[in-house]
């Protein structure tokens, strides 16, 4: 199923494509016959990622994009003639350890991780609804990159966890209602992935995986039609168990963790 789906996806858009998981996803999708529409804020890194994809046989377009800019994001989507798959990957992380989270950090995380996702996903869905359906009856797919953090209300990373929970639940709920238009949504919930975003973490990251492996699992889950693509299984289960702990115990444990610096995908 994965190979068949990858053959069908010839027009793919990825945000946050200049580094980390976004770059790994772009490279995993790159092959002759595919056009990758890559967007990110860092022009130099984006150009390097695009050149690598071109070397693998893909055609590319590159757009410097801040997903918080709704008008620019909508214009980017409107400029893509046909869209088989949008991967809304752009995001930022941040935490506080046991300290109070700054208001500016909270707003930045929600504006990027929630509003930024909607700024690309919503216009993409409207474009897909007007497209002819493929052989599988699907007009287009939107994959939202959330996190296993969506299942844990961690006091040390309140805004990050809440933002990922918001897009995870939105994608999963919307998938059920959008199927009648021939559109599928997928909530991608990775555990710890070795990227610049996690490089600053000063706490243990169990089952840390390379971005290339995370990209492979992401695309395999989308191709298999899974609404929730959560991996690796041990980290996902740990997150679900941690989310079931008493609130007071979670707060006590979070107070022992060092702060997480703000980083972008």
Overall description:
- The chain has helices spanning 2-8, 20-29, 43-55, 70-78, 103-129, 158-178, 196-199, 211-223, 233-243, 247-254; strands at residues 11-15, 35-40, 59-64, 85-88, 92-93, 140-145, 183-190, 193-194, 209-210, 228-231, 263-264.
- The chain has a single domain (2-264), classed as NAD(P)-binding Rossmann-like Domain (Rossmann fold).
- Helix 2 (20-29) crosses helix 8 (211-223) and helix 5 (103-129) runs parallel beside helix 6.
- The strands form 3 sheets. It has a 7-stranded parallel β-sheet, with helices on both faces. It has a two-stranded antiparallel sheet with strand order 5-11. Strands 8-9 form a two-stranded parallel sheet.
- The chain contains 10 helices and 11 strands.
- The longest helix has 27 residues, at 103-129.
- It has 265 residues and is of the alpha/beta class.
Write the layout of secondary structure elements.
Blueprint: H1 2-8, E1 11-15, H2 20-29, E2 35-40, H3 43-55, E3 59-64, H4 70-78, E4 85-88, E5 92-93, H5 103-129, E6 140-145, H6 158-178, E7 183-190, E8 193-194, H7 196-199, E9 209-210, H8 211-223, E10 228-231, H9 233-243, H10 247-254, E11 263-264
Parallel strand pairs: 1-2, 1-4, 2-3, 4-6, 6-7, 7-10, 8-9
Antiparallel strand pairs: 5-11
């Amino acid at each position: 199923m994965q190979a068949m789906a990858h053959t069908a996806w010839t027009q793919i858009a990825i945000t946050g494509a200049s580094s980390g998981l976004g770059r790994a996803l772009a490279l995993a999708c790159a092959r002759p016959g595919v056009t990758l529409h890559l967007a990110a804020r860092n022009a130099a890194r984006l150009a390097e990622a695009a050149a690598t994809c071109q070397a693998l046989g893909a055609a590319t377009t590159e757009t410097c994009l801040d997903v918080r800019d709704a008008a620019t994001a909508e214009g980017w989507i409107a400029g893509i003639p046909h869209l088989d798959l949008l991967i809304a990957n752009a995001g930022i992380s941040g935490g506080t350890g046991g300290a109070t989270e700054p208001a500016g950090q909270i707003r930045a995380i929600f504006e990027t991780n929630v509003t930024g996702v909607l700024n690309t996903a919503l216009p993409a869905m409207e474009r897909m609804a007007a497209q002819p359906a493929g052989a599988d009856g699907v007009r287009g797919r939107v994959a939202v990159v959330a996190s296993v953090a969506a299942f844990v209300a961690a006091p040390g990373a309140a805004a990050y966890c809440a933002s990922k929970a918001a897009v995870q639940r939105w994608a999963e709920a919307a998938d059920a209602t959008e199927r009648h238009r021939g559109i599928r949504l997928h909530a991608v919930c990775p555990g710890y992935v070795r990227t610049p975003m996690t490089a600053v973490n000063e706490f243990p990251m169990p089952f840390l995986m390379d971005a290339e492996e995370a990209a492979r699992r992401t695309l395999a889950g989308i191709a298999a039609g899974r609404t929730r693509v959560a991996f690796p299984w041990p980290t996902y289960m740990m997150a679900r168990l941690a989310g079931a702990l008493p609130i007071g115990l979670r707060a006590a444990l979070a107070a022992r963790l060092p702060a997480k610096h703000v980083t972008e995908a």
